[in-house]
Amino acid sequence: MATGSGHSGTSETQWMGMHRDARFEGIYRAHAADVLGYCARRTSREEAKDAASEVFVVALRRIDDMPAGDEALPWLYGVARNVLKNRDRSGRRRLRLSAKLTTTSERSVPGPEPQVVRNSEHEELLAAVAKLPERDREVLRLVEWEGLSREQVADMFFVSRAAIDQRISRSYKKLARTLGVPQSDPRTAPVPAEEGGEV
Amino acid sequence: MSDIQTLMRSANPIEDAHTEFGQDDLDALLLLTQQRSGDMDVKEVTTPVTPEKKNNRGWLVAAVAFASVIAVAALALLVSGPSEDAPPATTPTTTPVDVALPTTVPPTTVAEPTISADDEAVLAAFVTALNSGDVEAFRAIFDPAAERVGEWEGDYDDDLNGLAIEAQHKHLRGTSSALEDCVPNGDRVTCTLISEGPVELAIFQVPRREKYNFLIEEELILGISAKCDICSDGAETDGEILDWVARFDPAARSVMGAYHANPGSVEGAALWRDYAPMWREAKTAGTLDEVARAMVSVAAYEQSSNAGDAAAFRAAFDPGAVRFTANTPDLPTSLDKIVEEMQALSARQSVVDLTECVVVDRGVRCVLVVTGPVESAVYGGQISGATTLIVDDDGLILEIRAGQLALDVVAADRFLDWVQLTDPTVYEQLLPPGIREL
Predict the structure, then answer these.
(1) Using a CB-CB distance cutoff of 8 angstroms, which residues of chain A are in contact with residue B25?
(2) B contact residues 135-154, partner A, Cβ 8 Å cutoff
(3) Alpha helices, H only, B207-265
(4) Which of A152, B214, B272, B303 is the most exposed place for a label (fewest CB within 10 A)?
C-alpha cells in the first residue's frame, strides 16, 4: 500500500521555488518504493527495477510539470503505467517479428501479471482479474493494491468518481461470478474505510 | 468488506512496498536512474559549445605539415635511388594533408521526447475526422467507455456526443484544424490544436490556439482536456457579434445564440460563418451602423420572400425606388415584376437565401441562392448569382442590381421547351427568376 506522504506538506509556491534537484530528491525519497512496488506487482522484479528507473528518468526530465502534493504519486503511477505498456508493446512487436523470422507458430505473449502468487485461491483470482478489461483491471489494482482513493483514480483516468465506482462494482460482480464467491452490495462493499465505507 | 474484496486485497503480491524494498533496492534504483539520466543528458540536452578560438598559428602548422611531406618524399628518393623501372615522377602520389582546423563545432541538436507511433496515428486520425466533419469516424477513435471526454476551461464539461457535434460544426462553419507540437506529458500527450476559419479569424483575429491533453489507451482516446490560449476576448466578442446581428436579424441572433451555447444546428453554424466575418470587416472599417442598416433590407427581402408575403416584401423597398435590374445591368424591371417573381418562387417552394454579404458603397452585395424542388430538378441543385441591394438612410431598398445567375441554361431551356410543349398554360409560371427577361 502507498504510505509515502510525498511533499504534501509543501505549498505549491514553495514546491516550485525549490531547486529541481531538491524537488527530485523529495519525490524520490517519498515515492521510490511505491513506484517500484507498482511495477513489481505487474511484472518481474528485475523488469520492475528497470521500469521504475525509466519512470524516474521521466520524472527528472519533467520535474517542472509534475503536480505537487498528493497528486504526485498518481502522476508517477500514470507514467509507470505507460512505461509498462510501452515495454509490453515492444515485447509484442519483438515477438511478432521473431515469429515472422522463424516462421514458427506465434508464442503466447507473457502478460504483465505479478510473478508472486501466494496460493491457488489467489492464482484463481488473479486469472479472473487478468480476464477483466485492461482498464477495469488497472482501476481495481490501483484502488486495492496501490491504495489510491477513488477520486485519485478518477482523475488519473479522466472520468468521474461515479464511473470508477461503477467499474469497480462491475469488476467485483464479474470476479464473484467467475469464482463463485458470494458478493455483498457492490456499492458499499468495495469502498475503502478512508472514504467512509465499511471495512 | 465483501469476501471477494478481501481476497483481492490479500492477493496483493506486495503488501507494503516500503517494507518490501530495502534501502539497497532503492539505492540501486537511484543509481540506475542517475546513470540513465546521465545518458539522457549526453543524448538529449544541448551541451553549450564554446567555439574554438581561431588558431592564429594555422599557417605555422600548415608549413610544418608541408615540410614534413617534402622531407619524407626526399628521404624515400635517397633511400631507393633513381630507377629506370620507376615511373616518371609526374603527379605526387602522396595523400594531401588536410591542415585546415575547424574553428566552430556544429551545435548538438536537442532530442525532444517523442510520442509513440501508435499515439501519433491516433492523433492523425483525430485531426482527419475533425476536418472531414465525419462524426462516425470521430466517434470511432474514442473509447466507447470514455465517460467524460472534455474538461474544458471553466466549469463546462463536454461528453463525446457534444464533442462530435462540435467537430461536425467546425467543419460546417469552414474551420480547419491542425495539431502541432505534440509531446508526451506524463501519461498524456499534449498538443496545440490550431483552429483556423472565418469564424475564428473574426472573433480572435488570429487562428485559435488550444492546448489539448490527450489520454490515449489501446489506440483509442479515453479523454481530452483542453485549455484555450487565445480565447480570452472571445466571449466578449461573441456577445458583440450577437448584439450587432440582433439589430437587423433577431431570428438569426436567436439561432446563433443557441448555437453558441450548445452547438447543434447546421443553420447556426452557417449564420456564424456568414455574420462573424462581416462583423469583423465592418468593425475594422468603422461601418457597423451602416452595415447593420443595409442588412435590415437583406433580412426583410429574404424573410418576406420566403414567406411569400407581398405586402412585407414591398415594405422593404423605398417608396421612391426606381431602378431594378436583373441579370444584366441594362435590363431594368419594375417592383411589380420583382414581387411577381418572388411570389412564383414562394409558390413552387423555392427558398431564397442572401449569403456571403459584403458592404459596398451605399449598400450590400450578397450571393443570392435559390434552392427548391424545381431548381433541383432542372439544374441539379441550386441557382445563384451576385445581387447588390442599394439602400437609403432608413435601410429601405432603393435599387437592386442582380448579376448573372449561375445556372445551367441548356438544361433550363430544354426543360422549358418540354413544359411549353406539354402544358403551355403553366409554362409562364415555371420560369425561374431572370429567365423570363432573357
Answers:
(1) 36, 49
(2) 145-148, 151
(3) 234-248, 250-261
(4) B303
* Contact assignment for B187 to A36 by CB distance below 8 Å: no
Cα distance between residue A94 and residue A106, in whole Å: 11
| pLDDT-based confidence at residue A32 (cuts at 50, 70, 90) | very high
Closest CA to A44 of A126, A136, A117, A141: A117
Average pLDDT, chain B: 72
Q: List CB contacts (< 8 A) between A41 and chain B.
A: 12-14
Query: How much is the average pLDDT of B21-31?
Result: 90
B5 in contact with A, Cβ within 8 Å: yes
Q: What is the ipTM of this complex?
A: 0.75
- Partners of B401 in the beta sheet? B325, B388
Question: CB contacts < 8 Å between A and B, how many?
Answer: 166
Q: CA B341, CA B402: separation in Å to the nearest integer?
A: 13
How many Å apart are CA B11 and CA B8, to the nearest integer? 5
Q: What is the pLDDT of residue B52?
A: 33
- Give tens-digit pLDDT for B279-325: 888 888 888 888 888 888 888 888 888 888 889 888 888 877 766 66
**Residue B131 neighbours by CB under 8 Å, 6+ apart:** B171, B176, B177
Report the range out of A130-139, B53-62, B230-239 with the highest average pLDDT: A130-139
Of A37, A58, A71, which is closest to residue A141 (Cα–Cα)? Answer: A37
pLDDT digits (tens, 9 = 90+) for B316-333: 888 777 666 655 554 556
Task: Give B 189-218 residues with CB within 8 A of chain A.
Answer: 215, 217-218
Determine how β-strand B220-228 pairs with β-strand B150-151.
Answer: parallel
Phi, then psi, of B313 in degrees rounded to 5: -65, -45
Which is more confidently placed, B70 or B390? B390
Does residue B36 belong to the interface with chain A, where contact is any CB pair within 8 Å?
A: yes
A33 to B5: CB separation less than 8 angstroms, yes or no: no
Do the Cβ atoms of A50 and B25 come within 8 Å?
Answer: no
List the grid coordinates of A18.
Answer: 525549490
List CB contacts (< 8 A) between B11 and chain A. Answer: 117-118, 122, 125-126, 129
> Are β-strands B188-196 and B397-402 bridged in parallel, bridged antiparallel, or unpaired?
unpaired
User: What number is the average pLDDT over the span A50-57?
Assistant: 89
- pLDDT reported for residue B395: 77
CA distance B180 to B177: 10
Q: Alpha-carbon distance B245 to B274, whole Å? A: 11
Rg (CA), chain A: 19
Residue from the list A1, A79, A140 with its beta carbon closest to the beta carbon of B15: A1
DSSP codes of every residue in B257-274:
HHHHHS---HHHHHHHHH
pTM of the model: 0.43
Contacts of B250 (CB under 8 A, 6+ apart): none
Question: Which residue would you say has higher pLDDT here, A83 or B430?
Answer: A83
A134 to chain B, any CB pair closer than 8 A? The answer is yes
The residue of chain B nearest to residue A163, with distances taken between CA atoms, is: B147
Q: Is the dihedral of CA A142, A145, A150, A152 positive or negative?
A: negative
The answer to whether the CB atoms of A116 and B185 lie below 8 A apart is no
Q: pLDDT band at B264, cuts 50/70/90?
A: low
> What is the DSSP pairing of strand B397-402 with strand B323-325?
parallel
